[in-house]
User: Fold these one by one.
Assistant:
Number 1:
Amino acid sequence: MKRYSVEDRLLKTRFEIYKEPHIIVDTSKCRECLNKPCIKICPAGLYSLDEDGNLIFNYEGCLECGSCRLICPYNNIRWNIPPGGYGVDYSFG
Amino acid sequence: MSIDFDVVVIGGGPSGLSTAYFLSKYGFNVLVLERGSKLGSKNVFGGRVYSYPFDKYFPGWRDELNVERWVSHEKLITLCKEDSIELTLARGSSDKYKSFTIFLSKLLEWMGERVESEGGVIATGVKADKIIFEDNVVSGVEAGGDVIKSLYVVFAEGVNSVLAEEYKLKSKPSPDKYAVGVKEVFKVDRSKINNLFGLDNDSGVAAYILGGPLKGVRGGGFLYTMRDYISLGVVVHLNEAFEEVYPRELIEDLRLHPYMQKIFKDATLIEYSARLVSEAGLHGILEKPYGDGYLIVGDSAGYVLNTGFTVRGVDYAVLSGKYAADTIKYSHENGSRDSKFLAKYMELVKSSPIYHGLKKFKDVDKALSDRYVYSILPGILCRLFNKVYSTGEEPYKLYDSLIDSIKSESGIINLIYKLITLGRSI
């Protein structure tokens, strides 16, 4: 049996992506954050580091769980929900 | 003031639709705003609903709601490295109908039909953007540029109560008492599900999973059988993200354990989902889930209980919706929107199964956040069973096996102390 990557799994979930992000991260502050728990907790794996060690974030594929909103030790994630009718669209939740 | 609706309910989940149903039944003019494009678009849970609130308040529901399976089998599955230990409660026929598996989209669709049959209005794809205050009384909402005035507003936003928090009607929860639940749903042949677990078409399994890849992680796994699907998931304490724990990988580790391989071989993944779960229990409920012109229900108010083995959420949501509706009826009969009258809501909650359950498990949050429990218990069980059922030349005595198993994972005194503390709280 093969392991599913997060990308494999996100392809199975339906999204209606809005043109603007509903989550805004002030990544300038992330350098100070040693642990960067957002990278680990996000079930969609939307937080990662680029080659220079800067935090990068993509809102497309957001499962709207809210884990990053609570976990950020610097309270640095401006978390909102997408406009009505947009974002994740579960059928088997 | 001129009003558009008597009550606006923000959120079309189990608590919001329950509130709307009872209010509509009482003759109120109700509008539900649901931000998802359909009911259920934004809702995720494990998979099981308890029947009792529907038996009590939704007569006829058993003829209307197409459940997936009735939970006839409760399983406690302890995974070892490759082996597994399974403990099953197989219910007699009469108790089987007391809980069922379902997808929330189905449950909510049915609840929505109930709301509409009583004259309630449900607007999907509409997000409430702002709250309108008049003389410090919540008097409606603004949604998509439209102003909607109402006598009362009910917040049923769910675990992420963005709007209620923005207006300081509740504070932002701390991550210490929350977990993230991650779920994968698979299409599996009905006959295969029946054969795997020894079920007939309408009976099903609810399983709690510990150990294996989850050993030492503050959290657990779950599995629910649907008619033609199986849901598999993990619930992991948020603070595990400060360790090297990745819930999104943990669920795959779980699926790839030999026990699960036999279930999920040839199964097709159809959806991946996630949500936050409160583990705060009694300590997580709002002290004042009401104020002038408004009430807060369901998950938004913290009405979720994780007992360590099972989770109560949808049933509490439905009950709190009923209490909210009763409270608004009472306040309206007294011609008031004042928090003095709406405080009746808390009285109803406090004398209900919600509060009684949460109070009974008031220390469960401590037990659930104790890493020790998650590492030593599965370890001891695995070693104990392997010793007792040893296939070597000489069998082991139960007592010797037990002592050896405990010593391999922990000190005996420490274990006894932990078991007593744990035993009291779960």
Note: Chain A has a mean pLDDT of 95.
Number 2:
Amino acid sequence: MRLCHRTPALRWVGRTVPRSWFFKRVEWNIAVLAGLSGYRRADVLAIRRALNGNFPAREIEAKARKYLVYRRWRRNLLDAWPNWADRLDSWCELKGENHLTAALASHRGAILLSGHDFGFAPFVSPILAQRGLKLFRAGMGRRAHRMTRWGKGAYRRWEYLGYHGSSWHRLRVLHRMHEALKAGGVLQIEIAALPDGDARMAMPLCHKRFFLDAAVVRLLETLKAPVLPCFSLCDEAGKVIVEIHPAVPPDREEIVRTFGGLYADYLRNFPECSPVWKKLGAHREEF
Amino acid sequence: MEPAAVRRRIEALVSRLYDGACGESAGATLPFCAGQELFDSVAALQLILELEKEFKIVVEDGDIVPENLESLDSLADFVCRKIAAGD
């Protein structure tokens, strides 16, 4: 798939072959890899352990397999999407765009808050930028590395605000986030689910608890822009589905209650979309 | 505005933001940058935003350096310079 989309002479192949075929190929690959070589066994075991007792055994196996498929599919899409940028409707669906429009009408910008590394979060910025919005994505990656990873394509750019670096660099990045929002931009931030943390950040999950990153919640309170929970999933044929929820006031209690509740629901209903289980399992025995 | 008045207002602001944890001496490091490990960038951002509001100045990316924001003294100097420059 990488060859089809990255090699100029073969790009037409990538554009001609339907997305669902590429997705099927990933499913077959994973079926073979997982069956023969115990591919990413530690991840699968972590999911099985975490979900044990919450789903029937057969469903847990299906979810563990889906987890592997989605990770591989996400990696493939990173290569493929610039080639498909001009035909968004063929590989993604955006739900709740009206909530974002309503939030932007307040002229304070808008923050799209996703669970860290949940589902297909890296595609939220490209999809919305392609729709003409002024997009900023904050993360710990190095800017140059992130931008080259997306390849050269005729698609609209978004700005990556790399948080990685010295304390003063981080402060400058936070200030740039504030400026971006003041200018009516849309900022995408991800928040981690931690095994331990401040009790006020706790969320219930599958009869256990985990915690939202308190520093990110404080940042959201400081930035004072409306916060829209945003989660991206994948359907049975590899189509990316971005769901934007109504705005939450930038207040700790509201964020923990509303976003935390949604995040816990998504993790419970789509555990295959999150790599969080391995980390939680490593720190907390009950997971 | 008098530098002494600017300093007093900044001192009050810092005390309010950091629960009275303002440096004992004039040149003391501000609470958010007590060290590389303890640097609290969100607290520092809160202070910058409050300074912008309080003194009607615009802090640029290039202004965010230790020389301007590390201590109460350097902060007061920085704000005075900004006010004088009409930023």
Note: The mean pLDDT of chain B is 81.
Number 3:
Amino acid sequence: MSRVPQIGWLADGRRLHLQDGPIDLIVEACGSEANMRAAYDAAARRFTGLLDELCDELPMLRRAAEPTRCLLQGVVARRMHAAVAPFAVDHFITPMAAVAGSVAEEILGAMLGAARLARAYVNNGGDIALHLGDGEQFSVGLMDRPDPHGLLRTMVIDADDPSRGVATSGRHGRSFSLGIADAVTVLARTASQADAAATIIANAVDLPGHPAIVRCPAHDLQPDSDLGARLVTRGVGELSASEIEDALEAGAACARRLLAAGLIDGAALRLHGETVVVAAKAIETPGSETAFNKDAMESALHA
Amino acid sequence: MPTDATAAADDKIRCDACPVMCYIKPGMAGACDRYANHNGELVRVDPHIVLERTVSHGGRLVPFQAGGDWDGKIVHEPSMFVTAIGAGTTYPDYKPAPFIVSSEIDGVDMVTVVTEGIFSYCGVKVKIDTDRYLGPETATVRVQGEAVGHVTTGEYGSQMLSLGGVHHLTGGSKKEGRVTCDALMDLSNCKPVELTIDGGATVVVQAGYPPIVNGVAEERMRVGCGSATIGMFAKQWHGKVDEVVVVDDHITGVLSEHQAGKLLDIPDTGIKMKGRRSTPGRYFQVAEPGTGWGGTMISDPLSVLGPFDPKTARPGTTMLMVSTTGEHAAYYELDAALKPIEKPMPADLRLSVERIQENCEPALCTVLFMGGAGGSLRAGVTDNPVRLTRSVKEALTRVTSGGAPVYVWPGGGITFMVDVTRLPAGAFGYVPTPALVAPIEFTLRLSDYAALGGHMDYVRPLSSLKDNTEIRQVPSPQFPPGQRA
């Protein structure tokens, strides 16, 4: 195979871009010159061949996870299974629901194994694994478009916080969603756990049977989708304010259960311009953007 | 880059670009969103588009690496031009535009700053070549019931609409903004959009195609108003027919009364026109505007005539009635009671009708995208945004959109217009703000770029783009750009 991962610096010269097939990572490490070099070397080394490892077990990764037994061999594959297993009793979920976060964690782990870093992250298309040394923090911005006015709110993760993973799921992403959320962003202990939980919560933001929601069997769109014949959301038409509230509440109820079970540290759910936050810790809204955050509903829903 | 794919059953193809080996259905992308099945062919959907400068209409897309590997040579004619399509936008994460590319053109080191701009202040100006009545000036234009713009005025042979703009995008309801954004994006990507005009017509507009007014496709623009048509063709009718009426919503012309007829000594026929006479042989308002003959509502042309004057008219008088586009025509002779009776049209008159048709150009819808490059977009190009504006005004910096030439409106800021048919397919996207994402490129001398505070550290040679610039662009099959959750 002539395929080689694409490994290169972004235009700013300080962030590493790693891409292989569907995996697309942006990596940044902060530390001494020598440690940064060692970390980036380790990231590139671990990345090479990682996709092949996953693909070796792809058929099993695409099957519904068993809650109590894991026959997978690869370290990343087993992490994927571990992340989705807590949900496998009550839901259909495959290890693929945690693939992005699990890969991010693996690369970050390789970097931390090779270098002492003050702060680092591996961002796998929005599913992010974090490292925070003492006193360090990381701000995560939730945006609805890539310019300064698109910033909806920011979440600051301190070294003292338990969260080291951030993930976003929704119907606009690369993978299909069973729900209608535009985006569900989750903070959790690890990126793989955040990834799996975001999938489950985004699926729960739904209005079953609503005529304005267009659904289609996943395998009609992608013949080898792990979701098989399950109906995935293709379009969401007009929804009334109360329907938006109902759908968000269904997701928020799911998020509160996961929060109580210790599976997540917080979640922000967004649908048709409305946002609901479920969190033990405040998620701040930038003062300049109050226009986006008018709804009284969200404050009532802080857990 | 491996781009082989094996055809499998029911038109899905198997991508072998990576070990995931996705089966991809037509019109869909693989798990990576980078490779897609475009009519049974595996194509890249995320890359930069590189245009060869060409005189052919609309510019032809060429593979960046056509004919083997990049040879590293500085580009000569035909020059490669890097467009912003697929460049993405990255601010405010880091300021420099995603790609600042240097290439050498005419021996001068040139810099092209390539970005995809987000335009909240944008819209389209639509010119619809038709004389048919579309609606009153300032009437609201709607898509799916939502106000997306308004009728402005008539231009020569055309009706003008102004669609979009910041008030419809972000000033109204969420639905109005979303519908407006979708309509603008579709129109800009040369897709058809059905517009309904309050108190007027329903028209399907697609850039580069004839308008479809109330279900009927327009064919031709008029060559002139009815009066002008009389002036142009009077000599050709002289001696072949006694009277000609050119039916027109604006000015209907009558040959025997018109100055052109008088100069040819064409005798009076006793014709009596309805409507308001402007000057001899020229009549306003012979009928209500509509989608019938010559942009009027009539289907029977005789309805614009009163009875012939028995003092002047004589039986056997011949008369041609024709619309300004030649699309409608009929031939009459007066009977003993001086009543016009339709008869088969003589060949030489048929020829004159065809001549009118021939002189009427094909009716088209044309769509100009108009947007303003805001301060933050300009800051992606230089650390002192106003200098970029000045440089554009002084013509040191050339602005293009997807490689297509633009007209930069005089005055402050960088507000430009571009003919959407000159951009490659799928060049426009949107963000849910809602706002449109359009490519914009600034090309200038490297030395000028340095002088205006350019991000010199980020300038990359053209050849360095080869690794992530791929064969060609097709519209992203699943998701609009800028919307990746």
Note: Chain B has four domains: 5-44, 50-120+374-468, 122-221, 226-359.
